[in-house]
TrEMBL record, chain B:
CDD domains: TM_PBP1_LivH_like
Membrane topology of the entry: Multi-pass membrane protein
The protein's name: Branched-chain amino acid ABC transporter permease
Annotated localization: Cell membrane
Length: 391, 290
């Protein structure tokens, strides 16, 4: 009897000890739960961001303010209910300090209530619908918003001989944002939007839409489609002889995504887009970033998703440094707000009011350099705040 | 206006090549093969790799896609499909949709999920325009090429089915396998060949369609609905039925998106519902039948 009691006690003590040890170990860890689409249609987003996040850790060490950084990558296949479940698991079971990633808007929105309830900062590294940061006071964004980049085009186009435009956007959150904000700014500058076309997200054939544009004969066609579909639009645009009919193609940078640009072929030459990042951005910081990225991932070229992930990691690292490894979600969040730094894309800062990123937006033209296609920047609009927040 | 008609016909023809293989297996062999799109995807990826990695010219890729996918189809028919012939339709549906999901996951794993782009030869990229004003007819060369290939295919298939000995054997084997084998027809071989040709056609369709429809691992699921619409509207007992249905749907889809873009992709479904209410068996059906 006594002996059994002894064994039980010993066992329990051992258990308690090991648990407290595990806890002690945990308190020395800083966990980042990275929820990304690693398979499925949006997988390129996930691969880019993970590669960039790992690069940032390799460059800046995995110990910050005495804490060991642990990156937990989960695949949500860009499906919001999976995102929600993963976010819950990460927060409750793994006790992560920050959740990050989020390839698409619905995924970011699905995790937002959990971030609020658990007071966990949520760093959005990809999803780009304007309203996301309003879904939770714990959301900080390191990517961009579509209004931000479309408005820049609405400013540039009228000054450069484009008087009338037809818009063509994929019919979902970001597409509607792009359409709305481009149209408003373009009209404000005296331009005329002849027709607004929305195509289904899973559209098999762009022929009828492009033919309509051709018959309407605007000066230019403004396009936003998610990066995969961009190549198809561009090819059919050329095939239909629209460039020869005097219609120019202008777009947000998703269409000439650096990750896919080389596959699109020479048809892409001369397309003008507005975006916040190009692999060819001519700054020393970016040259270093691109070189290191390609050395670590020989077959990939960093695109705007990668830079969103890279800067997102920086925001987390700096917040951890600023709070000296102490303090919970609220302290981290406060330290994330208002960060100013030099990103590979140029100078950026995290707006303390909106928690959204403020950055330069560039106008770029596709050009060939050393046998490869690049978005070469030729004009810049400095310090663009998300226009979607100005209400 | 004519341009829209032209684009619609080309699109319809493409749908036809993609779906006709399914019409063959579904209608003639009475097997519900929802993995049909996976064979089409295989043809598409084969073309992309043959062109990018091996430098095979585009025209040579088309027969290649047909043959390789047909062989793969034959192999699968012998190993996986044949035991399923006698099973109820629900089993067949579950089995084949499972295959489709496996194909999606496999491509995703081995190739990655990004869109694949094909670089067409120069002579297929241009465009010819005739007339002007409302009668302007602009023909993309690639779409002309698709129409030509599909027209030839249709005639050949129709001839094989209605005029050759193989065609009559196939029809006999379908209508009553036991009697057919009693008459000395090797039913297994007939089915094997038919399934292989059906798969091969899907492969060819995938190779032709990659340029217009895009190619990524979700292809089999994304376009399954279109194949099924073509087959259910057209009926499955002939080649002309699916052809007419594919053309009708292609033109309706393109014209619908052109004239009422707000309706988007809905036009096709509306048309399908109306046709099926009017003729539940499909547009062209053999009287009697099964």
């Amino acid at each position: 009897m006594q002996r059994r009691h002894l064994i039980q006690t010993a066992g329990l003590t051992a258990l308690a000890l090991s648990m407290s040890l595990a806890n002690a170990q945990d308190s020395n860890k800083f966990k980042i739960g990275l929820i990304l689409p690693m398979t499925g249609q949006q997988a390129s987003t996930g691969r880019q961001i993970e590669a960039a996040a790992r690069l940032y850790m390799a460059q800046n060490g995995d110990t910050v303010a005495g804490k060991k950084i642990e990156l937990i990558v989960k695949d949500d296949v860009a499906t919001p209910d999976v995102t929600k479940r993963l976010a819950q698991e990460l927060i409750v079971n793994d006790k992560v300090n920050v959740i990050a990633g989020f390839g698409v808007t619905p995924a970011a929105l699905a995790a937002a209530p959990l971030a609020t309830q658990s007071k966990t900062p949520q760093v959005v590294m990809a999803a780009a619908t304007s309203s996301i940061t309003e879904a939770s006071p714990y959301i900080v964004r390191s990517s961009f918003t579509l209004p931000q980049v479309s408005v820049a085009m609405g400013d540039w186009a009228p000054k450069n001989g484009v008087k009338s435009v037809v818009t063509l956007v994929a019919d979902y959150g970001p597409g509607n944002d792009a359409e709305k904000f481009f149209t408003e700014r373009f009209q404000l500058n005296g331009g005329k939007v002849v027709e607004k076309l929305r195509v289904p997200l899973r559209n098999p054939d762009f022929a009828p839409f492009l033919q309509k544009v051709r018959d309407l004969k605007p000066d230019a066609l403004f396009v936003f489609v998610p990066s995969g579909a961009g190549a198809a639009v561009m090819k059919q645009f050329i095939e239909r002889g629209m460039d020869k009919a005097g219609i120019r193609m202008i777009a947000t940078g998703d269409v000439t995504d650096d990750d896919q640009l080389n596959d699109m072929g020479d048809g892409a030459l001369g397309v003008v887009t507005s975006h916040h990042y190009s692999t060819a951005h001519p700054s020393p910081a970016n040259k270093k970033f691109v070189e290191a990225f390609q050395k670590a991932n020989p077959k990939m070229r960093p695109n705007f998703m990668a830079v969103g992930g890279y800067d997102g990691m920086r925001v987390i690292y700096e917040a951890l440094k600023a709070t000296k490894g102490q303090g919970g979600g609220d302290a981290l969040l406060a330290a994330m707000k208002g960060q100013i730094f030099e990103s590979p894309r140029g100078p950026v800062y995290i707006d303390a009011q909106t928690r959204d990123i403020v950055q330069d937006v560039y106008l770029r033209k596709v050009e060939k350099k050393d046998g490869q296609l690049y978005n070469v920047e030729f004009d810049v609009i400095k310090g663009v705040k998300d226009p979607g927040k100005a209400k | 206006m004519l341009t829209i008609l032209f684009d619609g016909i080309a699109y319809g023809m493409l749908l036809f090549v993609l779906a006709v293989g399914l019409a063959v297996t579904l209608g003639l062999m009475n097997f519900i093969n929802l993995a049909h799109g996976a064979f089409a995807m295989a043809g598409g990826y084969l073309t992309v790799f043959a062109m990018q990695k091996l430098g095979v010219p585009f025209l040579a890729c088309l027969p290649l896609a047909f043959i390789v996918v047909a062989l793969a189809g034959a192999l699968l028919e012998r190993t996986l499909y044949r035991p399923m012939y006698g099973k109820p339709h629900l089993d067949q549906v579950l089995f084949s949709i499972g295959l489709a999901f496996m194909a999606v996951a496999a491509i995703d794993y081995f190739v990655g999920s990004s869109q694949q782009n094909i670089q067409l030869p120069e002579w297929l990229r241009g465009r010819t325009e005739v007339g002007d004003g409302a009668l302007l007819l602009g023909m993309g060369h690639y779409r002309l090429f698709i129409i030509a290939v599909c027209a030839v295919l249709t005639v050949v298939l129709q001839l094989i089915l209605s005029k050759t000995r193989f065609g009559s054997r196939l029809r006999a084997a379908v209508d009553d396998p036991r009697v057919a084998s009693g008459l000395g027809i090797n039913v297994n071989v007939v089915f094997l060949l038919t399934f292989a040709v059906g798969s091969g056609l899907a492969g060819l369709g995938g190779a032709l369609g990659a340029e217009i429809l895009g190619l990524d691992p979700t292809f089999p699921l994304k376009y399954m609905i279109y194949f099924l619409i073509v087959v259910s509207v057209g009926g499955t007992s002939s080649i002309t039925g699916p052809l007419a249905a594919a053309l009708l749907l292609g033109i309706a889809d393109v014209a619908g998106k052109y004239f009422i873009p707000k309706m988007g992709a809905f036009t096709v479904y509306l048309l399908m519902i109306l046709i099926l209410m009017w003729r539940p068996q499909g547009l062209f059906t053999r009287k009697g039948g099964r």
